[in-house]
Design goal:
Layout (H helix, E strand, L loop, with lengths): L1 H19 L9 H25 L2 H8 L1 H21 L5 H4 L2 H23 L10 H7 L10 E3 L4 E3 L4 E3 L4 E3 L4 E3 L4 E3 L4 H30 L7 H6 L3 H33 L3 H16 L2 E4 L4 E9 L5 E7 L5 E4 L8 E3 L3 H4 L8 H9 L7
Antiparallel strand pairs: 1-2, 3-4, 5-6, 7-8, 7-11, 8-9, 9-10
C-alpha cells in the first residue's frame, strides 16, 4: 500500500508539473525549473531511444506500442479483478438490476470501441491530394501560424497543422501525439479522443462507485471494524474492492482534469499545440515587446541587438523566422501599435464561439480523404 501510494503521489506530481510548469505565469519559479528539469530528462531519454531505434526499426515500432499495450493490459486486468472479486459480492438489488448490468456492459464496450477508433483512425494526414484544400480552409493568422513549407514532407504546411516526428507525417488540425494510443490526435480522430477521455472517466467512476457499494454492504457484517481494517484485514474480495476503489478515486480526478482541459480548449478555440503557442504570445505581451506594424500589416517582437559598431540597439523581429523587419532608425517611418492585452488587442480567428468550435472539432469534419 505504501509503494502504491508513493507511485500515485509521484505520478500526480509529474502530471501537475507537465500541465502547468510551462505556463507564462510560472516562468522563473521553482515549478518552471522543475518542468525544465523533467523535460531535459525526457529529452535525454528520447534522444537515447531515437538513437537506439533508428538502426532498429522493428525495435522502434515495438517500443511505441508498449504504452498502449500496457494501458489495455491494465484495463483488462482491473476489469477481470472486478468480475472475479467484486461483482459477485454486490448487493442483490444491484447485481440483478438490468439497468446496472446494462451500463456495466455499455461502459466496457464503449471504452473498447473508442480506444480502437482513436488508435487506428487516421488523424488527418496532409497529402499532395488534399493540401490545396487544407491551405484554403486553414489559413495563417500571422501570430502563431505562417505561410510555410514542410521540408520533410516537401509540401506546403497548412495553418494549424504540424509535422509529427514520431508518426513521420504532417497532421491536419494537430492537437498532440498521444503515447497512450500511439497515434497523433488531429482533424479526423479528435472526436474519438474526447470520447476516449469521457469513457475512461465513466468506467473508472462507475467501477469505483460499485466497489464502494460492495464494501458498504460488507461493512454491515463487520460493524466493529473501520473502513481501512475492512479492506486490509477481512477477505480477499474486500481487499481487491478497496484497492480498485482507491485507484479510481485517484485517477478519476486526474483524467477529469485532462477532460476539462480539452473542454476549455474547445471554449477558447485552440488545440493543445496552439495553447502552447498562445502562451508564448501572452509571454511577449506581458514583457511589453509585442507590436503590430500598421503599414506592413504584420506583428513583430521588439528586441535588443548589437549593431555593426558593437552598440546595443532596438530592432523589430518577424515572429515566424526572427528576421529583422525594422531597425530603430526606421521606426519613426511606421505606425507601431503596442499590444497591451491579449483579450482586447488580439483576435483568435480560429475561435468561432464555443458551440461552433464543438461542432467543427467533433462533428463537421471538412473532408474524409
Amino acid at each position: 500500500m505504501f509503494l502504491l501510494g508513493t507511485l500515485i503521489i509521484v505520478f500526480g506530481t509529474l502530471v501537475a508539473v507537465l500541465l502547468f510548469g510551462d505556463q507564462p505565469r510560472f516562468r522563473g519559479t521553482w515549478l518552471h525549473r522543475l518542468y525544465k528539469a523533467v523535460n531535459r530528462a525526457n529529452g535525454n531519454a528520447a534522444h537515447w531511444v531515437v538513437g537506439f531505434t533508428t538502426g532498429n526499426p522493428i525495435v522502434g515500432l515495438v517500443s511505441r506500442w508498449l504504452i498502449p499495450l500496457f494501458y489495455v493490459g491494465i484495463i483488462c486486468f482491473c476489469v477481470n479483478l472486478f468480475f472475479s472479486n467484486v461483482y459477485g459480492q454486490l448487493p442483490v438489488l444491484i447485481k440483478n438490476s438490468i439497468l446496472y448490468n446494462f451500463w456495466i456492459a455499455v461502459s466496457i464496450a464503449a471504452l473498447g470501441a473508442s480506444t480502437a477508433l482513436v488508435t487506428f483512425v487516421d488523424p488527418g494526414r496532409v497529402t499532395a491530394s488534399n493540401v490545396h484544400q487544407a491551405t484554403t480552409i486553414f489559413r495563417p493568422n500571422g501570430l502563431i501560424f505562417f505561410d510555410k513549407q514542410c521540408f520533410t514532407c516537401n509540401l506546403p504546411k497548412p495553418a494549424r497543422s504540424k509535422h509529427c516526428s514520431t508518426c513521420h507525417k504532417c497532421v491536419l488540425l494537430y492537437d498532440h501525439h498521444c503515447l497512450w494510443v500511439n497515434n497523433c490526435i488531429g482533424l479526423r480522430n479528435y472526436r474519438w479522443f474526447c470520447a476516449y477521455l469521457l469513457l475512461n472517466v465513466n468506467l473508472m467512476a462507475y467501477g469505483g462507485v460499485l466497489c464502494f457499494w460492495m464494501l458498504q454492504a460488507q461493512k454491515q457484517q463487520y460493524l466493529q471494524l473501520g473502513w481501512w481494517k475492512l479492506i486490509t484485514s477481512t477477505t480477499e474480495h474486500n481487499r481487491i474492492a478497496g484497492i480498485l476503489a482507491i485507484l479510481t478515486a485517484i485517477f478519476v480526478p486526474i483524467t477529469s482534469i485532462f477532460t476539462v482541459l480539452h473542454v476549455r480548449y474547445l471554449y477558447l478555440g485552440v488545440t493543445t499545440s496552439e495553447a502552447d503557442k498562445w502562451g508564448e504570445i501572452e509571454h511577449l505581451v506581458r514583457l511589453g515587446v509585442l507590436f503590430y506594424i500598421e503599414e506592413l500589416e504584420q506583428f513583430a517582437e521588439q528586441a535588443t541587438m548589437m549593431d555593426r559598431k558593437g552598440d546595443y540597439t532596438k530592432a523589430y523581429l518577424a515572429l515566424d523566422d526572427e528576421s529583422i523587419l525594422l531597425t530603430a532608425e526606421e521606426e519613426p517611418k511606421y505606425t507601431m501599435r503596442k499590444i497591451s492585452l491579449v483579450e482586447h488587442d488580439l483576435v483568435n480567428v480560429y475561435d468561432q464561439g464555443f458551440w461552433n468550435n464543438v461542432q467543427d472539432r467533433l462533428f463537421r469534419i471538412p473532408w474524409t480523404t
